[in-house]
Amino acid sequence: MRFIAAFAALMLLTFTTAFAADPSGRYAVQGTNPGNGSAYSGTVTVEKTGETYRVVWVVGSTRYVGTGIGDRNFIAVSYRSGDSSGLALYGSDGGNWQGVWTYSGGKQIGTERWQRQ
């Protein structure tokens, strides 16, 4: 019985460490827009692509595609959709992420939270 408990604890620790070490995954996203603070929601998918991450947001009918760099503590993402581009920075919050973003040339920031699905 002790062996089973020890094995279960080891597996949980291994899974938790791996889970927290990489932002890859699918998330529900909620945020506020710069300036007016209006709220939005959608999904975001993060995929490891070598030393970078491919980040794809879907908010309403708009798709934003970005390239990120980071680790288990932060991820910085440059993104584009049509003629719009910008920059986002997120910090790890357990298995979730929260951060700020702006459009290129922006003077105000919005906020965003990713909740792992």
Task: Provide an overview of this structure.
With 117 residues, the protein is of the alpha+beta class. The chain has a single domain (23-116), classed as Beta Barrel (Lipocalin). The chain is built from 1 helix and 8 strands; from the N terminus they run αββββββββ. Strands 1-2-3-4-5-6-7-8 form an 8-stranded antiparallel barrel. A hairpin with a 3-residue loop joins strand 4 and strand 5 (74-81). Residues 5-19 have low confidence and may be disordered.
List the main descriptive attributes of the protein structure presented here:
eight-stranded antiparallel beta barrel; 117 residues; alpha+beta; 8 strands; 1 helix; Lipocalin; globular
